[in-house]
Specification:
The complex is a heterotrimer of chains A (about 425), B (about 375) and C (about 90). Chain A is of the alpha/beta class and about 425 residues long. Chain A has 13 helices and 22 strands. In chain A, α1 packs across α2. With about 375 residues, chain B is an alpha/beta fold. Chain B has 3 domains: about 160 residues, FAD/NAD(P)-binding domain; about 55 residues, no CATH class; about 100 residues, D-Amino Acid Oxidase, subunit A, domain 2 (D-Amino Acid Oxidase, Chain A, domain 2). Chain B has 9 helices and 19 strands. An 8-stranded mixed sheet of chain B has the order 5-6-4-14-15-16-13-17, with helices on both faces. A 6-stranded mixed sheet of chain B has the order 8-2-1-12-19-18, covered by helices on one side. A 3-stranded antiparallel sheet of chain B has the order 9-10-11, with no helix packed on it. In chain B, α1 runs parallel beside α5 and α1 runs parallel beside α8. Chain C is built from 1 helix and 5 strands. Chain C is mainly beta and about 90 residues long. The chains are: A alpha/beta (about 425), B alpha/beta (about 375), C mainly beta (about 90). Chains in contact: A-B, A-C, B-C. Chains A and C meet through β8 and α3 of A and α1 of C. The structure holds flavin-adenine dinucleotide (FAD) (2 copies) and FE2/S2 (inorganic) cluster (FES).
């Protein structure tokens, strides 16, 4: 198919806060900008649904600015790979096309970390962010008993959101200890608006049992989850429920940057002061460079974009705020780091790779991700290790899974370059 | 290994694994060395089609003997080897290719291989996803498909289970063969054995300079599960006419139904392509070719694309036997696109020769000595 | 033209009306189904996990196309959703 925009000044992939900010500030300065998102929605995970039902002032400000800025927006469009140097392949539900931008900002965000525990494959157990996202697009939750468990500030937001949507949130369980949260609390003083947010959420959650230092050990049910068993290490608790929202924090989605050759720094994309990756002309912003939430994403998106279009003077004032959010991200990572007990929840028969049904016991004895993959099919399924790869990194200490095209399962037809089509 | 092993096998691909097993069955003690996991080289990248071929008498002899050995093993293969007796369907697009079907059919029948000639309607009904209007095809029902990395692991485990003395080290990069029966690891460690069998696939020339083995790169695509999309391993006969047999980069349509319900789509052939990166344009040509045979293939969801290097020889036959003038370094390599199939017969020939037994099929066509003249030429071009 | 408020789809042949903007995964859940996909080695059916298109647990057949991630598809008028197709397992 003919490319709707064969060239542009800036291509932004991912329409969450980082991508929205990046696209907006470049278009406001007169650049030709294309913003793509895999989903039909704007706003990424956090602002999903804001277009239809405005609830968040910050989201409204940015989405309005975006709408006025002249950015060309294409939804249900995702980058699946490269066709040649600087020529990217984009897949839409019915077609694929290529684009050759002058610069590229990757803002593809993060996903939840899932750690296997017995019963975690039962229907009704969803990611915390996962359930929230689905509820925003019609998932029936009214009157259902939901347990929220796992780790990270997202849990509070999810519990509040579910409650507002009519769920009966029967408990909120954070694995991090009260002590490490207290330490984190003192650091929040540098970010007073975050304290406000947290207190606001706690108010909305009045009446919901909220326990720190508790984590799930087992889910039970026949065809779907019926109860969740949790522990604090000393006591256990069984909670009857219809659904579980459970995630152990977020991890950056590194497949696209890795495929494009961007070097990593630990579990994040390495960037310089202008958010440029190790590949000239490719920038990264938001969760990709380290989990830190929407404020970090917004400022990084602007820095990346302004650097990419050469507006260096406009970048300078943003540095301080960006560095502050980077520190916040580091503190976040420390506070909500999964406790060692969480790595021992899987039993021999617990499935670790959900695509290929590979159990914990089948995986023990291998020395590397690749060895295990070749012999057990772990990570060979359609998710290509997006779920089990992060888990086995934690459980077995294996290295990162390797990335091959397409970035995410794509139609075979999308792998045929347009000039081979003639 | 406490004592000096009788045989050191370099490479834990399917060929090295098969050789180790045959050596152990002959009562020899074996040490297998690889720099990476079992079956992690080209064995992890190949299609795993067990196919009887007819390019030459020697190729037929090796492939048919091997397929027979695989069939004898079949009952004991564990489930993860995914042995699937799906058969091969060679498809003819036009009358010229149909003439090839007739020739092929005669060749196989004269040698006792059961085949079935299909007309246009027969091809259409046995593989409804193929485009209408194909001329016909040839079905070889005994051909099969396996999953090679688990097959390699099985062969090694089997040797041990049956009391064979096999040890292995998958963290042992070999730097060089130094002196008779002796190897030096990249770590600097020296290991002494009786003889060394080099089964290092496309990397063999790095250990035995001068062998006429060239890397020939191939691309493959695996899809999500679509059970029934294809029933046979389907291979076009068009590649006989196309450039697939020559030096240029080429593509041919080839699809393999995996036991999982997934479709494995191939393939490309390329010389002078040392890197492992996916090459979008060649991949595109390959998939367009596939789409021209199976129009709905474009709608399937592709999970992963990868590449592998075949070990190609000038006469398209593998190299099995001792290096001329050095009877303590043996070669088992150069299997191009057939090493999964021919691994078992390769091991059989190698060990029969080692033990001074008469091989089941004549060994001369695969003997390294056939290149002796060439091997003495300077290696640069 | 204003978007219609309600979209009609079928889930395993049964008619169902859902609010506009509902994704296919949510429609399946609204039809009262908990299992979306048969796991490859048997056991109870699976349902959505990530809600964002990366886990592939929510794959169903949509308008005859198997293996589609239902959490990423917005319901359109007349859309046919199937979870009962075994070839989809
Ligand atoms: C019969 C069969 C069926 C298979 N089925 C599946 C399946 O269902 N799902 C599946 O995922 N896989 C499947 N595989 C493929 C397998 O998982 C590996 O992908 C394959 O072993 C080789 O792939 P790889 O090159 O990607 O290996 P990797 O483990 O990725 O690495 C091999 C080498 O390639 C290099 N490499 C990796 N990525 C790149 C890159 N982007 N650019 C350049 N070099 C790179 C690495 O550095 C390494 O040296 C199957 C294989 C076979 C033989
Ligand atoms: C795209 C493609 C499709 C194919 N399809 C088929 C098919 O359908 N049917 C079929 O029969 N064949 C097929 N083949 C061919 C088949 O995959 C190979 O012939 C076969 O895997 C070769 O096995 P091997 O053991 O010789 O080599 P490899 O599997 O490459 O094993 C060699 C081993 O040696 C190790 N090694 C190398 N150098 C060193 C060193 N210095 N130190 C330590 N270890 C070392 C490597 O790590 C590796 O594990 C295909 C190949 C390709 C590329
Ligand atoms: S729920 Fe994970 S892909 Fe749809």
């Amino acid at each position: 198919m003919i490319s709707p925009m064969p060239e542009c000044d800036l291509l932004v992939v991912g329409a969450g806060p980082a991508g929205v900010a990046a696209a907006t500030v470049a278009a406001e300065r007169g650049r030709a900008v294309l913003l793509l998102d895999d989903t039909p929605w704007l706003g990424g995970q956090i602002w999903r649904g804001e277009q239809q039902k405005p609830t968040n002032a910050q989201a409204q400000t940015w989405l309005n600015r975006l709408a006025r800025s002249g950015v060309r927006i294409i939804g249900e469009a995702r980058m699946v790979g490269l066709e040649g140097p600087g020529r990217y392949v984009i897949e839409t539900p019915d077609h694929h096309w290529t684009i050759q931008p002058k610069a590229l900002v990757l803002a593809t965000g993060a996903r939840e970390l899932f750690l296997p525990f017995p019963g975690w494959t039962l229907p009704g157990i969803l990611g915390a962010g996962g359930l929230q996202t689905l509820v925003k697009t019609g998932w029936p939750i009214e009157g259902q008993r939901v347990v929220v468990a796992g780790s990270g500030p997202l849990l509070l937001a999810v519990a509040a959101g579910l409650k507002k949507a009519g769920a009966n949130v029967v408990g909120l369980f954070e694995q991090a200890s009260p002590a490490s949260l207290a330490r984190f609390g003192t650091q929040l003083i540098a970010h007073p608006d975050k304290i406000g947010q947290a207190f606001g959420l706690r108010r909305q959650l009045a009446g919901v049992p909220y326990k720190l230092g508790w984590w799930p050990v087992r889910a039970e049910g026949v065809n779907q989850v019926e109860r969740l068993v949790l522990t604090s290490g000393r006591q256990t608790l069984t909670v009857d429920c219809d659904a579980v929202a459970c995630g152990f924090g977020l991890v950056p989605s590194l497949e696209l940057p890795t495929l494009l050759g961007c070097l990593l720094d630990g579990e994040a994309v390495a960037v310089d002061a202008g958010q440029q990756t190790s590949v000239q002309g490719i920038f990264a912003a938001g969760e990709l460079t380290g989990i830190g939430g929407n404020d970090k994403a917004l400022v990084e998106g602007q820095v990346a974009s302004l650097t990419a279009i050469g507006e260096h003077a406009a970048v300078f004032p943003l540095h301080r705020s960006r560095n502050g959010w980077r520190n916040f991200a580091r503190a976040l990572g420390k506070t909500f780091k999964p406790r060692p007990e969480l790595l021992k929840l899987a039993e021999p028969q617990t499935i670790v790779c959900r695509c290929e049904d590979v159990t914990y016991s089948q995986l023990s004895g291998y020395t590397s991700w690749r060895d295990a993959k070749l012999q057990t099919r772990c990570g060979m399924g359609p998710c290509q290790g997006r779920i089990c790869g992060a888990a086995t990194r934690q459980l077995f200490g294996w290295g990162m899974e390797s990335v091959r095209p397409p970035v995410l399962a794509a139609r075979v037809a999308s792998l045929i370059p347009s000039d081979e089509r003639i | 290994m406490s004592q000096t092993p009788d045989v050191i096998v370099l490479g834990a691909g399917i060929v090295g694994a098969a050789c180790a097993r045959s050596c152990a069955q002959a009562g020899l003690s074996v040490l297998v060395l690889d720099r990476g996991p079992i079956g992690g080289g080209t064995t992890a990248a190949g299609m795993g089609h067990l196919v009887v071929m007819d390019d030459s008498e020697a190729q037929f002899a090796l492939t048919s003997r091997s397929c027979q050995l695989w069939q004898e093993l079949r009952a004991e293969l564990p489930e993860d080897v995914e042995y699937d007796n799906c058969g091969t369907l060679w498809v003819a697009a036009d009358d010229e290719e149909m003439a090839e079907v007739d020739r092929k059919a005669r060749f196989y029948q004269e040698r006792g291989v059961a085949v079935e000639i299909l007309d246009a309607a027969g091809v259409a009904s046995s593989e409804p996803e193929l485009r209408p209007g194909l001329a016909g095809g040839l079905r070889v029902p005994a051909d099969a498909v396996i999953y090679p990395p688990c097959a390699a692991a099985y062969l090694l485990a089997d040797a041990r289970r049956k009391g064979g003395r096999v040890e292995m080290d998958c963290n042992a990069g070999v730097a060089a063969i130094e002196g008779p029966g002796s190897v030096r690891l990249t770590s600097g460690r020296q290991i002494q054995g009786g003889i060394v069998v080099v089964a290092a696939g496309a990397l063999t020339p790095l250990l035995v300079p001068g062998l006429p083995i060239k890397k020939r790169k191939g691309h493959l695509v695996i899809t999500d599960r679509y059970p029934g999309f294809a029933h046979h391993q389907i291979v076009e006969l068009g590649y006989l006419k196309s450039a697939h047999a020559t030096q240029a980069d080429s593509v041919a349509f080839n699809i393999q139904p995996r036991k999982t319900g997934q479709m494995l789509i191939g393939s490309s052939r390329q010389y002078n392509a040392e890197g492992t990166e996916v090459e979008p344009h060649l991949l595109g040509r390959m998939l367009k070719r596939a789409e021209s045979y199976m129009p709905r293939i474009g709608q399937l969801s592709a999970l992963r694309v990868w590449t592998g290097h075949r070990a190609a020889t000038p006469d398209k036959l593998p190299i099995i036997g001792p290096v001329p003038g050095n009877d303590r370094t043996w070669i088992a390599s150069g299997h191009e696109g057939l090493g999964i199939t021919t691994s078992l017969a390769t091991a059989e020939i190698l060990v029969d020769r080692l033990m001074g037994r008469n091989p089941a099929i004549p060994a001369a066509p695969y003997d390294p000595a056939r290149f002796e003249h060439a091997a003495k030429e300077p290696t640069h071009a | 033209m204003p978007e219609p408020e309600v979209i009609n789809v079928t889930v395993n042949g049964q008619r169902l009306s859902v609010p506009a903007g509902t994704v296919a995964a949510s429609a399946v859940a609204r039809a009262g189904l908990v299992g979306f996909r048969a796991p490859v080695r048997g056991g109870p059916a699976r349902g959505p996990l990530c809600g964002m298109g990366i886990c592939f647990e929510c794959r169903i057949m949509i308008n005859g196309q198997p293996q589609v991630r239902s959490c990423q598809v917005i319901c359109r008028e007349g859309m046919e959703l199937r979870t009962d197709d075994l070839a989809n397992a």
